[in-house]
Write a structure and sequence with these properties.
The complex is a heterodimer of chains A (about 300) and B (about 280). Chain A has about 300 residues and is mostly helical. Chain A has a domain of about 160 residues: MetI-like (MetI-like fold), CATH 1.10.3720.10. Helices cover about 75% and strands about 0% of the residues of chain A. Chain A has 13 helices and no strands. Chain B has a single domain, classed as MetI-like (MetI-like fold, Orthogonal Bundle), CATH 1.10.3720.10. Helix content of chain B is about 75%, strand content about 0%. Chain B is built from ten helices and no strands. The longest helix of chain B is centred in the N-terminal third of the chain and has 39 residues. Classes of the chains: A mainly alpha (about 300), B mainly alpha (about 280). Chains A and B meet through helix 1, helix 5, helix 6, helix 10 and helix 11 of A and helix 1, helix 3, helix 4, helix 6 and helix 8 of B.
């Protein structure tokens, strides 16, 4: 177990280093720089700027300096928002994206788990059929379609909810719902099918024979086992929510990280590109690591299979 | 107990057939529309008639017109060609990389496998979306960029699937027999392994298509994908969003067709999956 933990941790750090390195060199291979705009600056100023941000040093020297700072969790200055550090921009924008993402995932699990369980228990009933139809629709409606349609209906037509910007809880409703639909449908499906596989198990019959209430049998005995495949899917799910948040932040004009990412590449804002990329990557890599460890803890065989490099 | 499971099996089969039927109707419908539709339309997707701009749907313009007076029905159908074409190309590129990669790892095993799977593990850790956006900015937005980035980013699960299947199949008796007869790895791959992997591969590829359609639309929406005068569904949806307050039909039609197509492929994939698991 300890060996597995060390191996997975090492792999995650390796992944982050690979990402940092690839991004760094790719970024510096882009034509143009942070201070080349449509209006060219006087030569002296350009030179001063480049000196101040040490843009004239060879790439590998900057790479070494960057890694050194990274080890101290300092992402350096932004080249666009002068006077602001990348750390500061990230801490300003991240709460917006995080609120959206966490609420959407919470909604997805909060709704998806009970719905999936009911679907598995009542397999083949009308309820189950309806559930399957709705989840199929939910998985096929891209955020890019759903978000504008909801915005049009509930904000522009009915005027019930604010159409955009960041503010009180009412501002959260439309973005979170549009972001949550796809993961909700996926979680419902996953829970339904893994519960359906667990339900015929003998230990559940035993629990019933002991006289446990059906609720306790389902939630305390069946669910933990049925949740493992769902848990294992958390990584891709979070990545999907991230993709969705790029769209959501644009549709609802929210000041989150997604917009910063696309804009920073266009602006050649070297510091911010590295910052956002590494930030997102560590988030996803960390989540994957956590999921793998929890799975291994719940199911020691899982770790063993992964360790031997076995397939699914 | 056996009665119940037999009943369950019958139900799964019924659902598989229904999924297959609905999925193929939608997919075939969209493909036929995309291939034949434009030739029946009297309009060109690019011709601008400013006098006819922003017309709601009527009998001349079934889906209405856009801000530049272009017939939206024609544009949506040409968009279908583009979106479906890109998706198909992307999935083929995924297959071209993932199949040999996984097959090599599974067949040779040992150090080759360790190395290839180690690289795969690292690649798995990298969130593809960040790279796709990054490369698109480097390559410049456009058709080729979308095709290359998506094609190079989503072959990982295919490689894993192929590898684990090859691992199982290479121990099968018919493969041992082929080896004993002196067939080379190349012949064994084509004659023995590939035919036995086709069904699950088809399922995975069918699920890849709606993914690719969705991602292409997403990138075009961010302005990184297909560029004017070309218009994929993503571009049309983005234009529709911009004008939905005054001309909601410009969003409604392309968005519906996009969603229906994704639904069609999802149903088809699900049906195929249920059918293959059955056997």
């Amino acid at each position: 177990m300890l060996e597995y933990l060390a191996r997975r941790l090492g792999l995650s750090l390796l992944v982050l280093w690979v990402i940092a390195t690839i991004t760094f060199f790719l970024m510096h291979s882009l034509p143009g720089g942070p201070f080349t705009g449509e209006k060219s600056l006087p030569e002296a100023i350009q030179k001063n700027l480049e000196e101040r941000y040490q843009l004239q040093a060879p790439v590998w020297q900057r790479y070494r300096a960057f890694l050194g700072r990274l080890l101290r969790f300092d992402l350096g200055p932004s080249y666009r928002y002068l006077g602001k550090g990348v750390n500061q921009i990230l801490t300003e924008a991240f709460p917006v994206s995080a609120t959206l993402g966490v609420l959407a995932l919470a909604l997805a699990f909060g709704l998806g788990i009970p719905l999936g369980i009911q679907g598995a228990v009542r397999q083949g009933t009308f309820f189950d059929q309806i559930l399957l139809v709705f989840t199929a629709l939910g998985m096929s409606l891209p955020t890019l379609v759903l978000a504008p349609v909801l915005l049009y209906l509930f904000a522009l037509r009915l005027g019930w909810l604010p159409p955009a910007l960041w503010g009180g809880p009412a501002h959260l409703v439309l973005p979170v719902v549009s972001l949550a639909l796809l993961p909700t449908a996926l979680v419902t499906r996953l829970v339904r099918s893994s519960m359906a596989a667990v339900l015929p198990a003998e230990y559940l019959q035993l629990a019933r024979a002991k006289g446990l209430a059906e609720r306790a049998v389902l939630y305390r005995h069946a669910l933990p086992n049925a949740l493992i495949p769902v848990l294992a899917y958390l990584g891709p799910l979070a990545a999907g929510v991230l993709t969705g948040s790029f769209v959501i932040e644009r549709v609802f004009a929210l000041p989150g990280l997604g917009e910063h990412f696309v804009a920073s590449i266009y602006n050649r804002d070297y510091g911010l590109i590295m910052g956002v990329t590494l930030f997102y990557s560590s988030l996803l890599v960390g989540l994957n690591l956590l999921v793998d460890l929890v799975c291994a803890w719940l199911h020691p065989r899982f770790a063993l299979v992964r360790q031997r490099g076995g397939g699914h | 107990m056996r009665l119940v499971s037999a009943y369950g099996l019958e139900r799964t089969r019924r659902r598989a057939r229904l999924n297959l039927f609905l999925g193929s109707v939608l997919v075939i419908g969209v493909v036929v529309l995309a291939l034949l539709g434009p030739s029946f339309s009297p309009y060109s997707p690019r011709e601008q008639v400013l006098a006819h701009s922003n017309r709601p749907p009527d009998k001349d313009h079934w889906f209405g017109t856009d801000a530049l007076g272009r017939d939206l029905f024609t544009r949506t159908l040409y968009g279908a060609r583009l979106s479906l074409g890109i998706a198909l190309a992307v999935v083929l590129l995924n297959l071209l990389i993932g199949l040999p990669y996984g097959a090599l790892a599974g067949w040779y095993g040992g150090r080759v496998d360790m190395f290839l799977m180690g690289v795969l593990d690292i690649l798995y850790g990298i969130p593809p979306l960040l790279y796709i956006i990054f490369f698109l900015v480097v390559l410049g937005p456009g058709l080729t960029g979308v095709f290359l980035t998506l094609g190079l980013a989503y072959w990982l699960d295919l490689a894993r699937q192929v590898r684990s299947q090859v691992l199982v199949l290479k121990e099968a008796e018919f493969v041992l027999a082929a080896r004993a007869l002196g067939l080379g790895p190349w012949q064994i791959f084509w004659q023995e392994l590939l035919p036995n992997m086709l069904a699950p591969l088809a399922v995975t590829l069918t699920f890849h298509i709606p993914q690719a359609i969705f991602l292409e639309a997403f990138l075009s929406y961010l302005g990184l994908g297909v560029q004017a005068p070309w218009a994929s569904w993503g571009v049309l949806v983005a234009e529709g969003v911009a004008s939905m307050r005054s001309a909601p039909w410009q969003l409604l039609f392309p968005a519906s067709l996009l969603s229906l197509t994704i639904l069609g492929f999802n149903l088809l994939g699900e049906g195929l999956q249920q059918l293959t698991m059955d056997n």
